[in-house]
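[Meeting: bench + compute handoff]

Bench side (C.D.) handed over the final construct sequence. Compute side (W.E.) agreed to return the predicted structure before the next meeting so the bench team could plan truncations. Sequence as handed over:
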Amino acid sequence: MNKYSAVFFFLFCSTILALKTYAANMGESDSLRTAWNSSMYISDAQADSVTGPGKSTESDWSFGLNGGYSYRLPNAGTRSDTPYSKYFRELKTGFSIGADAHKFLWPHIGLGLKYNFYKSKGEYNADFSDDVSIQFIGPSVVYQSPFENGKTSVLAGFAMGYQSYKNNARAYGKDFTLKGNATGWAVSLGLEQKLSNHLAINLSGACYLGTSYKFRKEMAGQTETIKLSRENFEDLSRIEITLGIKFLQ
């Protein structure tokens, strides 16, 4: 785990503790507890009329899709002022799409799987180009803290899994492909608004962390393994802001 992952893991834990403290303080007051329960649940008679006898309006499963703007955190080598380093900084900007599925085993905590795909491409004259794809997949946990209205919630998430890297590139007029992989971490924080018992929208910010020190270079039918030093690693870390839709069951 690098220094970035340690910082963001600390922030994630702090967020969870803050949300738990907030929920506990809300529960200390009987009047607020009554308001909380009335906003989170409907009466048995209403539940029977909406969902049928014996069925609950609580969502056991959620499936979400999202997409938006993403930016890769720059390596030390991109901080110089050469024309190619400027191009590489611009290449850091891309888009991301993702999906996740969770089962809520407890009222506010869900366990599941998270997937994310990042894409960025660019060309610097006829001799240099990059087409970068980074994928993340791994198990995740989410914590949901509803507001008093029962429709708006704060969502915090943490995931750990596998990241793959692929760059279909050209350098000095020669085409080649770089492939690598790394362990990845992801932390997220956002707001969700329920539109109905089975549909919600959300706005989220997330950070994906990962570092690769080894690549496979495929060029002209030959494969070469490239090992990077700790000073010249490839940082796969990125931040994103996305808009999503979630289906509840």
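W.E. noted at the follow-up: The chain has a mean pLDDT of 81. C.D. will use this when planning the next construct.
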